[in-house]
Amino acid sequence: QVQVVESGGGLVQPGGSARLSCTASGSVFSLYGMGWYRQAPGSQRVLVASITGNGDSTNYAASVKGRFTISRDNTKKMVYLQMNRLKAEDTAVYYCNTAGSNSEFNWGQGTQVTVSS
């Protein structure tokens, strides 16, 4: 079973930027579309960005479109989320997992992003 580990979160000022990374184990990583999800306190986990297995197509939730960019490097088994012009409402725990598939990897611990002055 594929394991994922997210990193790169922290405290960021409004309008600032952060880059999240997700590393995955296993040899099937490149076969799956991947996504970044986030869960704010008291809310359900939602998908905010996704990318196809070969990286040729991406999709974004309306709330982050134009500010966030998802990318991947299959040679390193990594997925990234570049977050710009961060807002207080982006505060959440961010997770990576499969997207557009009936299969999912084991969920990692996530990485906390807090946007506050």
Molecular structure report:
- The relative contact order is 0.33.
- The mean pLDDT is 95.
- 0% of the residues lie in helices and 45% in strands.
- A six-stranded mixed sheet has the order 2-10-9-4-5-6, with no helix packed on it.
- The protein is mainly beta.
- It contains no helices and ten strands.
- It has strands at 4-7, 10-12, 18-24, 34-39, 46-51, 58-60, 68-73, 78-83, 92-98, 111-115.
List keywords for this structure.
mainly beta; 10 strands; 117 residues; single chain; 4-stranded antiparallel beta sheet
- Straight-line N-to-C gap: 40 Å
Radius of gyration: 13 Å
The tally of beta strands, per DSSP, is 10
Series of secondary-structure elements, N-terminal to C-terminal: EEEEEEEEEE
Specify the number of helices.
Answer: 0
* Mean residue pLDDT: 95
Strand order of the largest sheet: 2-10-9-4-5-6
Structural class: mainly beta
Helix content: under 10%
> What about the largest sheet?
6 strands, mixed
Broad shape: globular
Low-confidence parts: none
Fraction of residues in β-strands: over 45%
